[in-house]
């Protein structure tokens, strides 16, 4: 769910930008845990090769979905293909996995760490109600912040 323009937080130096389930302070460190639910890719021959390698790597990790496969091969992609990945800070691009709960700093929200479409839709719907209440506040109320949201409800992490 987008609340503000996430492109404001993206570097033009990155070949790929991904949201993070867990962020450890360095936006270019492959130690960060990616969440490919939000993925921006700059079109280039390098990225075609990255996606071909990513697709091929699925054969080496049977039973894993694309995000898990990417997490397995991200160090190799950085080292051997020169991939520059920017992992978005969870302070601004949050998910249910982390406890960043300040609407004053939130750009996007991802329903990670939540199983089932119905649960995700329920909690994102609640988040949208809280966002509307936040938007109804005057600037002075917002500045007193942090303005916190209550979800997840069904999605327990």
Can you describe this structure?
- With 157 residues, this protein is α/β, with parallel strands linked by helices.
- It has one domain.
- It is 34% helix and 16% strand.
- It is built from four helices and five strands.
- The chain has helices at 45-57, 66-81, 117-135, 139-144; strands spanning 16-22, 33-41, 85-87, 93-95, 108-110.
- The strands form two sheets. Strands 2-1-3 form a three-stranded mixed beta sheet, covered by helices on one side.
- Helix 1 (45-57) packs across helix 2 (66-81).
- It is globular, with a radius of gyration of 17 Å.
- It starts with 15 loop residues before the first strand and ends in a 13-residue tail after the last helix.
- This is Nucleotide-diphospho-sugar transferase domain-containing protein.
- Residues 1-124 form the Nucleotide-diphospho-sugar transferase domain.
The 3D shape can be described as globular
The quaternary state of the protein chains shown equals: single chain
Element string (H = helix, E = strand): EEHHEEEHH
Strands ordered across the widest β-sheet: 2-1-3
Helix content: 25-40%
In what range is the share of β-strand residues? Answer: 15-25%
Please give the count of helices: 4
> CA-to-CA gap between the ends?
18 Å
Structural category is alpha/beta
Radius of gyration: 17 Å
- Number-wise, the strands total 5
**Main beta sheet: strand number and arrangement?**
3 strands, mixed
- How many separate domains make up the residues? 1
Please tell me the overall pLDDT: 90
List low-pLDDT spans: none
């Amino acid at each position: 769910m987008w609340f503000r323009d996430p492109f404001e937080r993206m570097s033009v130096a990155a070949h790929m930008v991904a949201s993070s389930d867990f962020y450890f302070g360095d936006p270019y460190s492959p130690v960060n845990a990616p969440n490919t639910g939000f993925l921006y890719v700059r079109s280039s021959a390098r990225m075609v090769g990255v996606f071909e390698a990513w697709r091929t790597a699925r054969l080496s990790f049977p039973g894993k979905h694309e995000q898990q496969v990417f997490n397995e091969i991200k160090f190799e992609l950085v080292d051997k293909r020169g991939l520059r990945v920017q992992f978005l800070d969870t302070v601004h691009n949050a998910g249910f996995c982390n406890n960043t709960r300040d609407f004053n700093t939130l750009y996007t929200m991802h329903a990670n760490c939540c199983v089932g479409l119905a649960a995700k839709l329920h909690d994102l719907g609640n988040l949208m109600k809280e966002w509307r209440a936040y938007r109804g506040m005057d600037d002075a109320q917002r500045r007193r912040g942090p303005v916190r949201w209550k979800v997840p409800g069904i999605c327990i992490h």
